[in-house]
Fold each of these.
Amino acid sequence: MGVLVFVENVEDELAAQALTFARGIGDGAVAPVTISGDYAPAAWGQTLADIATERSLDAVVAAGTERGNEVLAHAAAILDQPFSANTTAFTPGSPPTVTRVRWGGSLLEEAVLHASTPLMTVAPHAVVPDGNPVAAETVAPSHHALAVAPTKRVGATSTDVSLQDAPVVVSGGRGVGSAEGFAIIEELAGLLGGAVGCSRAVTSAGWRPHTDQVGQTGTKVAPDLYIACGISGATQHMAGCKGAKKLLAINADGEASIFAHADYGVIGDLHEILPAIAAEIRKPRGA
Amino acid sequence: MNVLVCVKRVPLTGGRITLTDDQRALSTKHLGFTVSPHEECAVEEAVQIIEREGGTVTVLTLGPSEAEEQLRDMMAIGADRAIHLVSDEEWDAQGTAAAIVAAIQGDETAHELILFGNESADAGNYQVAIRVAHALQRPVITGVKALAFDLDPAHPRAICEQEVAGGRDVYEVPLPAVVAVKEGINLPRYPSVPGRLRATRKPVDASSPPRPAAQLEMVRLVLPPDSGKQVQVLGRGPEAAPAVVEILGELGVL
Amino acid sequence: MSSPSASLPASQSIVIIGAGIVGNSLAYHLTRLGQRDITLIDKGPLPNPGGSTGHASNFIFPVDHSKEMTQLTLESMRQYKELGVFIESGGIEVARGEARMQELQRRVSSAISWGIEPVSIISPQEVRELVPYIDERLIVGGFYTPGAGVVDSLRAATIMRERAQQAGLTVAANTEVLGLDVEGGRIRRVRTTRGDIEAERVVIACGCWSPKLARMAGASIPLTPAVHQMIDIGPVPRFADAKGMIEYPIIRDVDTNMYERQEGTGLEIGSYAHRPIMMDAEEIPSIEESALSPTELPFTQGDFDPQMEIALELMPEIVGDESVGVKYAINGLLSVTYDGLPLLGETPEVRGLWSAAAIWIKEGPGAGKTVAELMVHGESEIDVYESNIARAYPSMKTRRHVQARAGEGFNKMYGIVHPAEQWESDRGVRLPPFHERERALGAVFYEAAGWERPVWYEANAGLLDEYGDRIARREAEWEARWWSPIINAEHLAMRDRAAIVDLTAFAIFDVSGPAALDTVQRLAMRQMDVPVGRVVYTPILTPGGTFKQDLTIMRMAEDRFRVVTGGAYGMSDLKWFRDHLPQDGSAQVHDQTSAWTTLGLWGPRARDVLASVARGDVSHDGFPFAHWRSLEIGPLEVLASRISYVGDLGWELYVPMEQGARLWDLLWEAGEPHGMIAAGSGVYGTTGRLEKGYRAYGAELDGEYNVVEAGMAWGSVKAEDFVGKPAHVAHREEDPAARMCTLTVEDHTSSSGVKRYMLGKEPILTRDGRPITDRRGRRSYVTSAGSAPSLGRYLLMSYLPPEHARIGEELLVQYMGERYPVTVRSIDATSLFDPDNSRIRR
């Protein structure tokens, strides 16, 4: 009895969230495991499937990370059980129901789980950790005939502040108007020690590389401050920046939907406003 | 090389999503449709592969009859033919994977490479590619942002780069294989007019597979609660700059 | 989101809703004319609030067969040039066949008539030299307008708004109108998401949203949003070095309803060929719901596939290039009306609520200026009577009618439209009580003000034998189309015997009350203080002394007048009278149009026919000309008015609508022994009136020409004040810049030996082939053309400047690319047929 929890990294807050979620299922018993050795998704999925079967566990849970989703998908395929990715809530019952994320978080789905051993990942930040310490049993990976593992790792090519880890992201959208228009975005990002982001419209237009794209299909960011310049606030984009602690929107359209998500707003032409902000930052303080 | 790419018809949403009255779908009255962005890149990648290596690209979808529009879109940018599993119903990931597997097994072309998008834009299940790979007993790599081949006839391999924190993991897998790609692997081309017109004449094999009972059965869709945020307008135009910088100071990001 | 800016003004003189090309232009021109306290509102952001201006293709071809539309376009081009946003690229309408080449020759005629030069017909090779990426083998020629070009309409709108703001305009973007409050039939208030504004006048300039806004006030702006598909492809290698937005002439492949034009490094392809796709204004998505903008709807590829094939064939080098991608494709919304014309002016339903809608980029600034002038001066430099929103009858404002006609008109956008071409959809809405009788006589119906009106009767075909050689046949298919020689036969039968004519399409309204006389006196140029029983034919003038209308007014009683006017602009006339009623309610206007039907009875035997059935004196002395009397015909009490628009003895006979059929039957029976026939509007509207030199509103008479020029300033000016009097008095004192003349065509034979007959709007040229321009800059063109069967001639009417307005002056008319000799035969209202009016006054 209990819930098998795949822990990728005990240090990660998302692991604490997944464990908290798992304790809310059934009688509260959890079996957190980490798997030793190099990442090998099919083999790791086999490992979870084996443990769940051997120990007759009720469910399998992991954090809704890239790897959490991947490993549980393998386990689900092996067990031929349904898998609810990025789940935000579980309601026991027969059958139980779940709420899960769709459209990168712009929409929620309520679904019934017809499963003997349901598998679920937990959508990031859907659960407040219960404060219990995170510990996990380390298990050896099982064998899987089709298991693949990385042969090598190549380093990140960029030496700039990484979009994912930057404390401030200054992001430009269609309203920037051109590739050249990003000069002022880069300047402000530089002044704030932040990274440059952009919307999908911008990468589609070829103004910025895809590595800069923030959104449902780009990078998902969680900076202290996200500055959205000339970005309308399409759902695809908001899915990538909803993790930001604060959002400042600068847009010519005061009714743009970005303002519905913003903490702070400035209405007007970003080509006038950003230089003014940069100039203001450069001003000697305390004079 | 023969490549099969699985795509899904999804609405092209604007700034606000609204639901149908039965709360089981997005209201798409004013919306156009596309395929999920990852999948558009998968088709582009497949077309680039056969441009280099020769072969065919087959594009497959499970969706309503209107999804033929997306199949034609994909054939307009270079896919050769399409397989359309026609169904108006909502399928869960297990059922979807099973239908795709049956279609692949029933297809006269042997596909050395099966491409997926990493996850669909709408459902985001993160699992159809993996389930298909297991059923076909093929290796699978997800999250792929670069794809190359070593087509040594004895040991043909795909070399896949997966983006991870701090770099990229490189996987080498024997073909045939399943690969789920992510947007950014390439910049999809726009269709040319001749491409568009050719697409209207390319073959679409349509069939209507029965839908198995859903194991993860969608009941209804819910719009997440409003963030309840009240935007604080700092001003209009460049005159707002001092107020902005003051906030930056308060947030400690200066 | 709560608004950051100051709140809206509590009250304004004028609120303009809609910040596209029209609203901004209107705001600018209103401030230029000294108006203050104006607010411009849009629900969207600036500079592109998301309407049609934001996605328009922005090109302008100035030549149109409509004088009014051409004038609006020319004025708009002038403004775009002044704003520095016009790029002259030239434009070519290409022909894929001979029918189109003939149409292109018509366009040359219209270009000369409206003063647009240079234009020329060019060969396929010349097209290729100008547009080297076209496959010239597919075309047989082109109509080249070097002055065509492309504008930046958003920039133009922005500049005009900024100029207006300097003059005090308040701009409220991101402000949605929630309601329009009407009190006592007058607009009172605009309710918005940012508060209310009390307003004296409100203008709806909301493009395809306009019907929705009008409905908020209980008014109607009868247009429909319709889809126009367009795509942008690129980058085109040939255009890689393009320095400007446009460097090659725009191609209109009119025979396929398409256009192609270079824009930067891309090629834009647009189409009016696809199935009409219409929606309701309420269905247009919000800005939030839209993936692009509310008026850029998802592209429906299947509708465009055939157009791609066509474009590929015409421009294979570019469209067939595999490296050139479709980068943008939309179903763009634009505004289409039931008759293809804009909707300008104050709505007839709500005082102070104005419409500036159904205007495209090419007319935008001109329409803005025109509506501003109408609001400030009550008249405009460009007369826009055809676009007056008040013109529509109720049935024309219905969703069904608007969508049917807009859909039918959509695919004719680039069509070869015959001047007499009839609508096919939604016919049979207004039927005279004689309709079944007319059908039985083989009537061929045209639509007139929504009525089914006979133009000729096939039952009269036997008259063709009777009149034989006196009836000229038309050899060329174009002129034989929508025409029959039976019209001329009916004409001769009327002149010889008698004819009844269906006049149900008249608009009729009564002005009554203690101030009725004052009211009609103020509006009519002629003396209206006449005895009860008199009928007065009078011009109705604009303040500038030009024509608002010409119509007849009967004095029914001391305090009641009955106005009878043509159906086409009857509702506009009704509004003009309503607008001029005294404020204190001492006179009223009541629309009687659907209460009365009218039959005309004319010809030398008309008195005999009438006398045989009517109780009452119908002798010349007992019932003089220009009088009305009440007669009994069988059980019917008939209002008989002794006037004529065909130049023969006779009457207009009015009875309540439900008694019309009986009147027809009684007259028909009485007419039989006298050889009376039924004649159609071909006689009434063309042959009969032309022989008599009678002018028609909308042809000879409009807001561009004054009464003296029209040759209608007979008698002295009445002592009483009337609208336009000072201007009219001044016109009498000056030499007219032009005079209305009647001309005969001396030789109809074309170079190919076929006799050709002009149909109207052709330019009149000097004998050496130069266009004729009067001192006010107006070109001489054919205002009306038609047979004069009694004279055996073909007549043209045209304004000519004094140096050419001389009897016997020999000139030319240009028709279908050839020139025909014409001679001036009359330089005033003297008619060529029966010049002393003996047939009428006997």
Amino acid sequence: MDINVLLEYLPLYGEAFLLTLRIGWLGILLSFFIGVACAFILYFRIPILRTIVKAYIELFRNTPLLVQLFFLYFGLPKLGFHISALSCGVLGLGLLGGSYMTEALRSGLEAVEPMQIQSALALSMNKRQIFAHIILPQAIASSMPPILANVIFLLKETSVFSAISLMDLMFTAKDLIGLYYKTTECLFLLVVFYILMLLPVSVLGSILEKKVRYAGFGE
Amino acid sequence: MNTLLQQFGFDVLFKGTNMLRLLGGLGVALKISILSVSISIVLGILLGILMTLGNPLINAIARVYLEIVRFMPQMVLLFLVYFGATKAFGLNLSAQTASIAVFSFWGTAEMADLVRGSLNSISRLQYETAQALGLNRAQTYLYVLIPQMVRRLLPLSINLVTRMIKTTSLVMMIGIVEVLKVGQQIIEANRKASPNAAFGVFATVFFLYFIVCFPISMLSGYLEKRWENKG
Amino acid sequence: MNEILVTEHLHKEYEGMTVLEDINLTVKKGEVVVIVGPSGCGKSTFLRCLNGLETIQDGRVLLDNEVINPGRKNLTKVREKIGMVFQSYELFPHKTILQNVTLAPIKVQKRDKAEAQKEALALLARIGLEGKKDSYPRQLSGGQKQRVAIVRALMMHPEILLFDEVTAALDPEMVREVLEVILALAKEGRTMVIVTHEMAFARAVADRIIFLDGGQIIEEAAPDAFFTHPQTGRAKKFLESFSYEKK
């Protein structure tokens, strides 16, 4: 391995890293909002919307992100919806992640014991108070592990963005290998930057999980 | 009707053997998935059992292996093997061999983790109760332990199968001509005659993946629910 | 005139099965009514009908001459006057003990936070748990949790307290600490309806015993009379199930 080559490529990877991170986090943020909205709809069994949400979840959970991106990026413009590669990446990741986040949050909501709600009713709390003070905090705590697993999964999924010509880490690696054949250095940097992206999430995740757990669960 | 098909770019699918080619592309992807899934299940079960034996060396190695798989996107692994193996060992792996190797490497780790989880989930008391009832070792496994493991393991491993099928779509990125790549070729070849082909073709690919994965997911969900209710 | 709670011809069905049939009961202020009966006789369901956690198909429940009916607007208002303690404690696992007992007074009754906390600490001190105010429920024993659940109900200043088999989930050595709290409340003159399997406790705490079987009130008597001279064969059989004889 040639250290000079590493140093020379570092800025290029740095840029690609920031782009990947930006799309990744925007997509995850979007997926979280979609997940909260859809989990709400499923939990309160809102008619019609509930059917749409269910169809959406099945569609996006049962197809690869790469195919979803191709459809959004190359297919949709033919109907007149033009979006930039960047928005497409965020939207694709958000839609895919939303279907997973919905499941995580929904199962968290449903894991709240019915008796907890009854005891809140007996304390004469109303529906809104029960949801805000009793159901939601417990649901978020118990969906924390799957939500964190989803975040890691989604950050890993960012590796397909190069397919819609976003200059992400994969794109940069492939491009440089093709141009100069410094394969070892290119792959080494690729791995290092992905570890850099995922390690903090993993560490933060396990700390957060412990904290949430300590605050209420594990009887 | 024809103009409508053309407008949404579905017309190319009915030209010549285009639809058959697309299905052939799906076949390539599925072949890679099936091979990788088979290898992963066999090796995963073996590794999973090894991990419950409590040997510190095996556990340490397995731990590192599982962490690598947890951290590295499959796409990165694919690049490492496809480009890296040539460079490092002078091995000239075909793209297909490389992808089967990578997906098996990944799938084995996931499967082993599931197997270990389902083995550990059965309480020691179940084993002791069966022994106390006078069942011998083989009977204990056959009638008490294995049925419980299967009930936990099967839905999760079926779920893993759909994940592996979806992941196979990545192989186009190292040049394998599978369903997405065939789709691109069809769109390219009909650029003039059918400018909107990209919509029709990619919608079809989307749908094809869905009809492969959806029934498998349904089966997994069904088994999980059914066995959960029966305790 | 000092009747707090009245049920008139209360009728409850569940999936086509009659669970409670023509229940007429009057609870006077300061009275302790204990409901006993075999498992599945409908006693817990009856208790839950009293604060509208269960719907009823016929008859009515009145609290201070106001009708309690699930779905009615006044239900949360009426429930403020009825405290309930559950078998499984149902403390909120994500809140500390102090937060558990002050949540409803602050959020529902809009009481001053400092004032509510002051009262809570005084009540916790009475049951010897003021030191646990910042602990989470999972750090407490079952008996401690149940005592906190009683304080949580008291914090709403209810006119009547409902106890639903509050010792059934406890280890035997913790039963007493909970029952003593309830006995103390009875001495204070609190109005209570208690469902329990602890016969010695029932006899000690009750002003009146209701024996429920098959969804109907079979006997209604003063405790000593009920336990020494049950009038019906069903009550006799039920009481015999608590004693052991070597045949």
Amino acid sequence: MQKSTIQFLLINCFLAIFIISCGSVTKNYTPKKVDKTTYEAPYFSDATIDYVYKANISVYGNELSGIFIAKKINDTIHRIVFTTEFGNKLMDFEISETSFKVNSIVSELDRKILINTLKKDFGLLLKKKYQIQGQFENDSFDIYKSTDGNRDNYLFLSKKDQKLEQLIHSSKTKEKITLTFSSENNIFAEKIEIIHQNIKLRITLNYFKSEENSSN
Amino acid sequence: MKTKILFLILLISSHLSAQEQKMTTAEIASFKESVNVVSKKIKTLSTDFVQYKHMDFLSKDIETSGKMIFKEPNLLQWQYKKPYNYSIVFKNGKILINDEGKKSAMDIGNSKIFARINKLIIGSVSGDMFDDKEFTISYFKLKGQNLAKFIPKDGTLKKYIKQIELTFDKEEATVVQVKLLESSEDYTRIVLKNKVINAKIDDSVFTN
């Protein structure tokens, strides 16, 4: 299964280079005067919490599931572990804004293209500080633009309560990766989806209620 | 000062007494015999389980729980009920998965590693795992319990599991805890309880 998946990923990456759609991500949004210079994302930032989620990964019609664990282990680094339901560790990373370390990965998943994709996804998921260069709005959201190398991140904060509900990582012309967050309190995201626009990859994370929480 | 030393001695000695003690050759033989007698009688087995995933960097273990059902010769269902519904059935060379209602099947056919995993799970729960060709086995005594430690000999298996520890109730000679060690810091501990042996279980249970 893995081999064919990787081939698909490769083929699609090449296809993506040829299929270029036009139009800026922000064409449907109204520009606004920037009201803040920085933004701090609220999720995954508490070092006392074990962030444990049931994970479902859909890649080119193949379904993979397991347990996703993220934990802030110091000021800059998060530990990310993905295990099967039985608890076998499939991958174990340490990630910060500037570093990435593979502690372990099972040989079946040890492919550069997969690791680089996850490195990008988890980097976006855990990124805390954003420098704001532009601001937009639509009916429901205040949208902040933050430059990320030669790409841009667009942060969607609900107008109603300023919750971070969506993060779009895009090139100058096209959305690449979309992260959606469902959060009751804007501290903890109960449900997260990471959707790739140019490859058929979707990661869904559902917060894992522990026994004591579920009995509450 | 004296009380401090006394306290320290008490602490050390209580720690020592809680530790495992190696079995003698005669004890090993009689332990294996009693486990084999019991596991040979097992036609069906169902048990509740609580799984604790321990990882050194987490503040607490990740807890999941559910029910396991086995029927001879190789029907197995492992069903998580909390905090999510996830069930996996091993049946006729197939793995059937039901993940919160989302169903999928995998043909494992002649896959050696899955055959081995299947055998391993059934062996772990029934206690029938004393295969010297597959494992280097060591035997210990605990209070009211016996402990067998299995180190895989096969390289492929060893990559995933460093050691398997089965704890047996001394009286009943059945498995009460399975511990799968990935490294010295990380392990999965599965506690089995409410075990029912040889109740009538219909084959239709093993659908997903």
